[in-house]
């Protein structure tokens, strides 16, 4: 019986296929659930090393402190999956806190609507510029960062005035606990569920992935690229504004320095969670794991005692560099397979 070249190639492919499929499954597992696995290992190490680490109070502190970062990171996940970046979220967060505290003298609705309106409008403007002019999101949102920082300084008298929250209902929004968790945590959980459905179960979410994967191909498929881009930057601005307002409610003041540089932590949480910086892949489950991981690292640094809080930036940077390198290796391996 004669064996043709095609038969030999088919046999070789059949022998190679199990190994290739195994590598793809491992790569998929690391890409989408690596942050969750690292989080579990880090928590286990912390529990073994420090008795106070696993106390309910410490766990609650980690979850509460991470919730504000997580809210902003939800919006950033949408932006990065679409192939963009939003450097203005840190300034939006600070500006929203100042505006919320200032507006609280006029009631709960003003305290919430004022920061959401301003930050949402700026996010909308950035989205329009990015989508309609084709300018690099890095440049557009960097300009937004500087502009909102200047607006915050103007509102707060160059940072000299710290507005106190003057509405009890608004303060309660950031401080009231339900079943052991504060209201911002429950809001975060609700936003994660809503955002997950939006990304995974709607045409809008699939359009975001399509644009991040290949904008040219998305245009050929009839995806409304301009509209989708505008909406994702609007979402990012709104969520950064909401997080800042809730943080002001928790602190009962609009602190002008808290949140400066937050955009770097947000991007780190999203990328550590498995979302590709190049766009087209990612999800909110990984983002939440990334945000919690940064909170756990900060808690461990506090437990150690001899390290300053700035050391968290060193650890976060190391994690981020490692994740980006791993993403690159996995992407190259998938292309070769």
TrEMBL record:
Keywords per UniProt: Cell membrane, Membrane, Transmembrane, Transmembrane helix
Membrane topology: Multi-pass membrane protein
Subcellular location per the Swiss-Prot or TrEMBL entry: Cell membrane
Membrane-spanning intervals of the chain: 30-50, 62-85, 105-125, 137-157, 177-199, 230-249, 284-305, 311-330
Cited InterPro entries: ABC_transp_permease (IPR001851)
Record keyword Lyase present: no
Protein name per UniProt: ABC transporter permease
Organism listed in the record: Micromonospora fulviviridis
Lineage, broadest ranks: Bacteria, Bacillati, Actinomycetota, Actinomycetes, Micromonosporales
């Amino acid at each position: 019986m004669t064996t043709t070249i095609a038969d030999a190639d088919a046999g070789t492919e059949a022998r190679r296929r199990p190994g290739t499929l195994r590598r793809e499954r491992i790569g998929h597992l690391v890409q989408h659930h690596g942050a969750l696995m690292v989080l579990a290992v880090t928590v286990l190490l912390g529990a073994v090393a420090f008795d106070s680490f696993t106390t309910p109070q410490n766990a609650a502190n980690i979850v509460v402190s991470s919730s504000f970062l997580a809210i902003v990171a939800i919006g950033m996940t949408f932006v990065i999956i679409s192939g963009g970046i939003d450097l203005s979220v840190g300034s939006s967060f600070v500006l929203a806190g100042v505006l919320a505290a200032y507006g609280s003298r006029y009631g709960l609705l003003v305290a919430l609507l004022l920061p959401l309106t301003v930050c949402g409008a700026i996010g909308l403007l950035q989205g329009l510029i990015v989508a309609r002019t084709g300018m690099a999101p890095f440049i557009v949102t960097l300009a937004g960062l500087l502009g909102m920082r200047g607006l915050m300084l103007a509102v707060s008298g160059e940072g000299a005035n710290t507005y106190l929250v003057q509405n009890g209902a608004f303060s309660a929004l950031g401080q009231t606990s339900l079943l052991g968790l504060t209201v911002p945590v429950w809001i975060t959980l609700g936003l994660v569920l809503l955002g997950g459905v939006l990304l995974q179960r709607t045409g809008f979410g699939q359009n975001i992935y399509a644009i991040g994967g290949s904008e040219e191909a998305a245009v050929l498929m009839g995806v409304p690229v301009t509209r989708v881009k505008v909406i994702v930057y609007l979402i990012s601005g709104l969520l950064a504004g909401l997080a800042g307002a809730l943080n002001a409610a928790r602190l009962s003041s609009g602190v002008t320095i808290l949140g400066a540089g937050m955009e770097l932590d947000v991007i780190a949480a999203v990328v550590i969670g498995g979302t590709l910086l190049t766009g087209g892949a990612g999800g909110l489950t990984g983002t939440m794991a990334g945000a919690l991981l940064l909170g756990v690292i900060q808690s461990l640094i506090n437990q150690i005692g001899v390290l300053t809080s700035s050391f968290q930036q060193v650890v976060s940077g190391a994690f981020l560099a490692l994740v980006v390198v791993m993403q690159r290796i996995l992407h190259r391996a998938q292309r070769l397979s």
